[in-house]
Amino acid sequence: MTVCIAAVCEGGKKIVVAADRMFTAPPPLNLEFETSEKKIEVLAPSCVTLFAGNSAFATEIIRGARRKLAGAQSPAFDAVAGKVQETYLEVRFAKVREQIILPNLGPDFLKAESLGISMPTYLQPQAGLYQQLAAVMANFNIQSDIIAAGIDSEGARLAVISHPGTTAWLDKLGYAAIGSGGIHAIMRLALGAQTSQNSAAETLYRVYEAKKASEVAPGVGTATDITIVDGAHAVECSVEMLTALSSIFNDSGGRTPTSLGAIIELMR
């Protein structure tokens, strides 16, 4: 229940990313609340991630990827996305073990495992139970989606890592959105003719506009964080910039704004 957006601009020299701050507590609480925590995480000076879904598991994934990158300042983006995917799979398997395997097989299996006996071998006399567990494990979803966005020697790169641990490369399309408001954001970017050739100012506005469009979806908060990533660093948009974006959006009344002068001035 959230929205995270990323869009390439300036011919692949920059990426604009945005997210809300809404968090959802699962049953039995069933609560939605906005906090001061941001969903845009910097992995390296020119690489960021954004997450939607289960924030607890996403936190494990992003922290694990950061540890694997070991403080690299200019990593190849393939390596960044690869580390995120690798950690996603590790976290998913750990949760499968914690929530499916151990509760169903118990301490006797742990003892057998310590002797080097695999689960298929352990359950060989109970083929029906093995098939049942295998089906449950295959469908187990940690309900976390992650956008990885960054710039390396090949230019701007975008990837979405999601269930069951696959990576979708969106470099060609040039934008991505995840979360309950993702479809609304994608449609707004498409209708706004967003491409990687648009200027940073145009893309900044289009991403803000997409974020506002996504707020009709359940679980999307009104607070907005935006960061601009280039080949050297990731810079958060100031309060002044967010105010200027809001003013232009409100004045345009849903139409294409006549001027982005206030945004361009603040970007200098």
Strand pairing plus helix content: what structural class? alpha+beta
Order of helices and strands: EEEEEEHHHHEEEEHHEEHH
The stretches of 5 or more residues where confidence is low (pLDDT under 50) are none
What distance separates the N and C termini?
Answer: 35 Å
**General shape:** elongated
Number of strands: 12
> Please, how many helices?
8
- For the biggest β-sheet, the strand order reads 10-1-2-11-12
Helix content: 40-55%
Model description:
The structure is a single chain. This protein is α+β, with helices and mostly antiparallel strands. 43% of the residues lie in helices and 24% in strands. The protein is built from 8 helices and 12 strands. It has a 5-stranded antiparallel β-sheet with strand order 10-1-2-11-12, with helices on one face. A 5-stranded antiparallel β-sheet has the order 5-6-7-8-9, with helices on one face. The protein has a two-stranded antiparallel ribbon with strand order 3-4. A hairpin with a 3-residue loop joins β8 and β9. α1 crosses α2 and α7 packs antiparallel against α8. It is elongated, with a radius of gyration of 21 Å.
List keywords for this structure.
alpha+beta; elongated; single chain; 5-stranded antiparallel beta sheet; 268 residues; 12 strands
Summarize the structure.
The chain has eight helices and twelve strands. With about 270 residues, it is of the alpha+beta class.
